[in-house]
Design brief:
By secondary structure, the chain is of the alpha+beta class. The protein has one domain (about 5-89). Helices cover about 20% and strands about 35% of the residues. It is built from two helices and seven strands; from the N terminus they run ββββββαβα. The protein has a three-stranded antiparallel beta sheet with strand order 3-4-6, covered by helices on one side. The protein has a two-stranded antiparallel sheet with strand order 1-2. The chain is globular. About 20% of the residues are buried. It binds zinc ion. Zinc ion (ZN) binds near residues 47 and 55.
């Protein structure tokens, strides 16, 4: 079993994230209360092959989010590149 830690999120909930996936995540919004699942925002420079946006994961359960997080890869799209360039200034 993978060791899990607790990642604080906005709102009233917490989600367990494997520690090695922490580096990909900017923010997690918990909208389970509105029946709207989790929104996982990736940090700039990372993407996942995903339907609506390559930079946001939206799934009903933490487990599904984590499955997608395991498939995260580096991203060099214009948005990420511009942001990371700006950060270095
Ligand atoms: Zn990108």
């Amino acid at each position: 079993m993978v060791y899990l830690w607790y990642y604080k999120i906005k709102g009233d909930g917490i989600v367990k994230l494997p520690k090695n996936l922490e580096k990909y995540v900017d923010e997690i919004i918990d909208e389970r209360g509105e029946d709207n699942g989790y929104w996982v925002y990736l940090k700039y420079g990372f993407k996942v092959d995903y339907s609506a946006s390559n930079h946001i994961i939206h799934e009903d359960t933490a487990k599904e989010c984590i499955d997608y997080l395991r498939a995260v890869e580096p991203c060099d799209c214009k948005e990420c590149t511009d942001y990371l360039k700006g950060e270095r200034k």
